[in-house]
Amino acid sequence: MSDETFEVVPIAHVVGGRREPTDDHWAGTEAIIRIDDPRFTEESVQGLDSFSHLEVVFRFHLTDQTDLHFGARSARDNPEWPKVGIFGHRNMRRVNWLGVSRTRLLRVDGLDLHVAELDAVDGTPVLDIKPWFAEFGPRGPVQQAAWSTEMLKEYF
């Protein structure tokens, strides 16, 4: 086990959109990623408006940190779905409480990034923002468990 630790400081926060995290129906949800770290100026987002999507790394700040399960469990506690380990889930119960979302960039207004379908809520600390490059997407056929397709049919 590594004893390495590091500090991560938010560079932005989510403004608007949903106030409560929910499991489904994120389609159409719009919010602003407001870059509020004083080290950044509008030059920091120069050229970003050439991209349609962003990859956003954020912290699940509303999660009960005592609600962490290292063992296998069924997604959403649905007994119809198989039990999978912590790394087979993409939920908010993460060891380091980090989330990753790909969101549509609607427009850039100063240091406000207007986005759609970011599955993070108002007040969420944003740790990093990257433009989505198609070449970094999956290569080759994509395979996923049938239960995940069923679970996410109403996510967006």
Protein model, in words:
With 156 residues, this protein is mainly β. The chain has one domain: Elongation Factor Tu (Ef-tu), domain 3 (Beta Barrel). The chain has 1 helix and 8 strands, in the order ββββββββα. It has one helix spanning 146-151, and strands at 12-15, 30-35, 53-59, 73-74, 83-84, 98-109, 112-116, 125-131. The strands form 2 sheets. A 6-stranded antiparallel barrel has the order 1-2-7-6-3-8. The longest helix is centred in the C-terminal third of the chain and has 6 residues, at 146-151. The protein is globular.
In short:
By secondary structure, the chain is mainly beta. Helix content is about 5%, strand content about 30%. The longest helix has 6 residues, at about 145-150.
Secondary structure category: mainly beta
Kindly state the number of beta strands: 8
Largest sheet: 6 strands, antiparallel, barrel
Q: How would you describe the shape?
A: globular
> How many helical stretches?
1
Straight-line N-to-C gap = 38 Å
C-alpha Rg (nearest Å): 17 Å
Domain TsaA-like: 8-141
Organism: Nocardia panacis
Protein name: S-adenosylmethionine-dependent methyltransferase
InterPro entries: TrmO-like_N, YaeB-like, YaeB-like_sf, YaeB_N_sf
